[in-house]
Amino acid sequence: MNPDLLFLFTDRIGVFVFAISGGIVAVRKEMDLFGVIVMAFLPAIGGGTLRDLILSQPVFWLEDTQTLGFAIAGGLAAFFFHRWLENFRPLRWADAIGMALFAVTGAAKAAALGHGWPVVLIMGTMTASAGGLLRDVVANEKPLLLLKSEIYATAALLGSLVYFLTSLWLGDEFLAFILGLVSAFVLRALGIIFKLSLPRSPF
Amino acid sequence: MNPDLLFLFTDRIGVFVFAISGGIVAVRKEMDLFGVIVMAFLPAIGGGTLRDLILSQPVFWLEDTQTLGFAIAGGLAAFFFHRWLENFRPLRWADAIGMALFAVTGAAKAAALGHGWPVVLIMGTMTASAGGLLRDVVANEKPLLLLKSEIYATAALLGSLVYFLTSLWLGDEFLAFILGLVSAFVLRALGIIFKLSLPRSPF
Amino acid sequence: MNPDLLFLFTDRIGVFVFAISGGIVAVRKEMDLFGVIVMAFLPAIGGGTLRDLILSQPVFWLEDTQTLGFAIAGGLAAFFFHRWLENFRPLRWADAIGMALFAVTGAAKAAALGHGWPVVLIMGTMTASAGGLLRDVVANEKPLLLLKSEIYATAALLGSLVYFLTSLWLGDEFLAFILGLVSAFVLRALGIIFKLSLPRSPF
User: Fold this and answer.
1) Count of CB contacts below 8 A, A vs B?
2) Distance in Å, alpha carbon of C47 to nearest chain B alpha carbon
3) How many alpha carbons lie under 13 Å from residue B84 in its C-beta half-sphere?
4) Which residue, among A24, A34, A53, would best test binding to B if mutated, counting the most B CBs under 10 Å from its CB?
5) Domain boundary assignment for chain B
6) pLDDT digits (tens, 9 = 90+) for A49-83
7) Is the dihedral of CA C179, C181, C182, C184 positive or negative?
8) What residue in A sits closest to C36 (Cα-Cα)?
9) What is the distance between the alpha carbons of residues C26 and C16, in angstroms, rounded to a whole number?
10) Nearest by CB to C118, which of B32, B68, B137?
11) How much is the ipTM here?
12) How the protein sits in the membrane (chains A, B, C) (predicted)?
């Protein structure tokens, strides 16, 4: 499997799994089939859409319409199999891979446009996590991303940082991509396994 | 009445009626006059604004500022006459006309830019329904569009599809516009009359 | 202190104080540190971001990344000192200055692009107040901007109008800027002191 194909494959898994997360929220909220599909789109393509709008770039799924198919497939999977999927443990690991990939992709897109580290880190984190935030806001739920005692966006931030520094210091784009991806995934995995969390204000 | 004038007239009615829907939610939520105007803008111009941002097009109301006047008028109508308007049955038919027109307009704009059917269908549906979703999200209410057991976005989707196929097969833009408009309106009308709804997840 | 430096100084205060308002909401909602930073960004840069997207302009903080630092500082201040800041009366006056400045800056940006008064007034009001609205929507709270019986967005609207008219009639951009700023601030100050409010629908 060459790198491009591996990248495409991972991206499709990420979109599909993110879409499932939206579809499950929709089913829980007793939305109809249309609501399930809309709620599947939000986490699957919301973060990347916001990234492209802010960077003044063409929105990625206008060209890559296959992505939309995978998002719809994730929504349908949630519609039909949500009971089974909610308790399917491997899903959170697939979600972690998707998060790590989206973070590095977002960071790389910002860096390729010549932006400095503040914008690169924000875009990486936003691509990985803003879609999930949109999902909760539209579902009129408490925003999990901001509340839950889990390491999620922080892992996306770390992945973006590792990508940026490796790319800057070693000049090897491919290596930077891999290292960023792995570090985001590993921090997220540690967070899941050891139930790590960010502090709340103790004051 | 020539076609262009008819189109403009229908569009103004759509904006005005959509704005009333936002204003009524605002009055129910005990918002002040400013809140009523903001909430009138969201359904009236929110869907088209989102469409233009995603398509990288100039936002339509920057040029067509008359639209803003009709949106404000709808908000003021809700502010002063909401009791009467809430029970005014013809409003939902005017809303159905607006929805049908916005769907076909959105689909046509995407098609004119050379996009394929997935983007055309999304843009048609989004133009007609995303503003109402925004209204509910900002009002901190359950999103009616995704929950209510009514055929609404589905009608917009059908109208976009009929427009796209007619335009593709017959090559007659005007006919495609009319057929798309009529099919969206008829499906919505059937949904209202026979209380049709999309299924929820039965699992 | 020359005008440019004074402008920059006021802008930084505005961003910092707006960010504090977001951070305080986040701490109240028991969000973690990441949530506090995100919620600080929303009011601090949300209004200007929306303005730039709608005007098809490069989003301001992609170049002016220093702004992001002030937003983060505001979030951290709320994280550590929220108890003290919530009761710190001068904050609302700093907020009023920020609001006035953001309104005139937004109006000036729209006017410089050649837009007429409807767009200029909307952009001024939006730059000053949409970020606070975003903050409340994401926090899943009732939107203060639309509900609270205070003169806030109305002051931003007045400032934008005074700026526009002065610039049009006298042709002096600097004077227009100052008069707009002062009138927005004074109306907001009168609103605070005399507890002025906009009417709700009495019907």
Assistant:
1) 77
2) 14
3) 6
4) A34
5) 3-193
6) 999 999 999 999 999 999 999 999 999 999 999 99
7) positive
8) A146
9) 15
10) B68
11) 0.94
12) Multi-pass membrane protein
